[in-house]
Design a protein that fits this description.
Blueprint (H helix, E strand, L loop, with lengths): L2 E5 L6 H11 L5 E5 L7 H4 L11 E3 L5 E3 L1 H11 L10 H16 L2 H6 L7 E2 L5 H21 L12 H15 L6 H12 L1 H10 L15 E2 L9 E4 L18 E5 L2 E5 L2 H9 L5 H6 L1
Parallel strand pairs: 1-2
Antiparallel strand pairs: 1-3, 3-4, 5-6, 7-8, 8-9
Helix pairs in contact: 1-3, 1-7, 4-6, 4-7, 7-8, 9-10
Organism: Thalassobius vesicularis
Pfam families: GST_N_2
Keywords: Transferase
Length: 287
């Protein structure tokens, strides 16, 4: 019972991130398909999914096509009640849906002036309109955390679909060094440290861009998330493992990690691991 989920890009597509997180964070089986969002093939890639014209979009195991992240979220929550994708408390669940819907429809200034990017941190002086969006986020996040967040670091304590919808917002705050309260900064830090978020970013970093979408003429600092273990691709050496930690297939590509060499079955497996070695449990087990 595997879903097909179609995404456009990992570094820049905030909507794609939300669609992918819905499956990955709640253990729902999926096969991921890349759509040519910046390669000019998007229409062709989505042709069999009409009337879908944007990413993400999913196809259920029984062939139903669902677009738009709110519709995808509700469809998955309905089909997988055991995953508890929304908070179980009725008051918390109602507020979580409210927050997700407002995120889906609002915060236009933050979105347009700070497009999501996971490459580095721009040093930005935000406009008054972006500051107004941040103030609204402060109100919403504080309400959720103070009323319902006692059980954990997420908006409603345990991770929920509300956190899926706000993950790209946390990435924007981090990616543009936006001024936020300590409560908001703690939430941003929790998002950036989440191993699933780190794996999404690591896979995104395997792709290069020329030109870089949405590039800005601003000072740049390194990405503010957890520091990655030193690593680099290599073409010679003797790997400690005979099989790829992800596929179990024979080693064809190698990388060095803090002086140790490990092998992988293809360039993607190698490069996503080089980008953030400790984000991958199957590789961490080798270490």
């Amino acid at each position: 019972m595997t879903y097909d989920v179609f995404i456009g890009d990992r570094v820049f597509s905030s909507w794609s991130m939300r669609g992918w997180l819905m499956f990955e964070k709640f253990g729902i089986p999926k096969k991921t398909h890349m759509v040519g969002l910046y390669d000019g093939t998007m229409g062709e890639d989505l042709a069999d999914l009409a009337p879908a014209r944007l990413v993400p979009v999913m196809r259920t195991p029984d062939g139903i096509v669902v677009g738009e992240t709110l519709a995808m979220a509700e469809t998955l929550a309905e089909r997988h009640p055991e995953a508890m994708m929304w908070p179980t408390d009725p008051a918390a669940r109602a507020l979580a849906r409210w927050l997700a819907a407002e995120m889906h429809a609002g915060f236009g200034n933050l979105r347009s002036q700070c497009p999501m990017q996971l490459l580095h941190q721009y040093q930005m002086q935000p406009s008054q309109s972006v500051l107004a969006d941040l103030a609204r986020l402060q109100d919403l996040w504080t309400l959720a955390r103070t009323r319902h967040g006692e059980a954990g670091p997420w908006l409603f304590g345990r991770y929920s679909l509300a956190d899926v919808f706000f993950a790209p917002v946390a990435a924007r705050i981090a990616g543009y060094n936006l001024p936020v309260s300590p409560l908001m900064q703690e939430y941003v830090a929790a998002t950036l440290a989440d191993p699933v978020f780190r794996r999404w970013r690591a896979m995104g970093l395997t792709k290069s861009y020329d030109p870089v979408p949405y590039a800005m003429d601003l000072p740049i600092k390194p990405w503010p998330g957890p520091a990655a273990m030193p690593a680099q691709a290599v073409t010679s050496g003797t790997p400690e493992n005979d099989a790829c930690p992800y596929s179990g297939e024979a080693v064809t590509h190698m990388a060095e990690f803090d002086g140790r060499i490990f092998g992988f079955c293809n360039a993607f497996c190698r490069d996503k691991t080089v980008a953030d070695p400790l984000a991958w449990p199957k590789f961490s087990a080798l270490l």
